[in-house]
Design brief:
Layout lengths: L4 H22 L2 H17 L10 H20 L9 H5 L7 H15 L2 H12 L4 H8 L3 H18 L5 H5 L3 H8 L3
Helix pairs in contact: 1-2, 1-3, 2-3, 3-7, 6-8, 6-10, 7-8
Amino acid sequence: MSIDISLRDSMLKATPNLRAFAISLTNNVDRADDLVQETLMRAIANIERFQPGTNMQAWLFTILRNLFHSEYRKRRREVEDADGKYAATLSVAPDQMSHLDFEDLQTALARLPHDQREALLLVGASGFSYEQAAEICGCAVGTIKSRVNRARNRLAELMHLTDMEEDLGPDRVTLSVMHAVA
């Protein structure tokens, strides 16, 4: 199958953001890579459905999100490492405070309800506007704004943050998630 070079370049340009979003959703790099690969394969197989002139990245994020939800529905009844023995053997000694802060953020993000985490990651970490995030999630803009606001407040609570600037320090990733501007 032949694909237009400009479409291919748009897909390749979006791949790092797709991967970051997939990692955020799955909390597993290998599963995220598989999800991105499946997203790109589906996009190529259905490239005739893409409307030129529209946002390729948003289209790909929608495909990825739908694949994730399909996979999630299949896996939600699966129990992996129920007794936690395997997980207890895994450890990495952090060598920098920012790494620890990032781990705290990941842990707190994982504790957010899925819809809030998804909205926050789209707006705060991936740089989508509220309108674009609403389109990707298939809901109203007000719903996205509400989810992002609730997610930010819950993150602050989970991370025991009172003064964002003082507590978060210079970590730009964390600050962008907590203070994203649409």
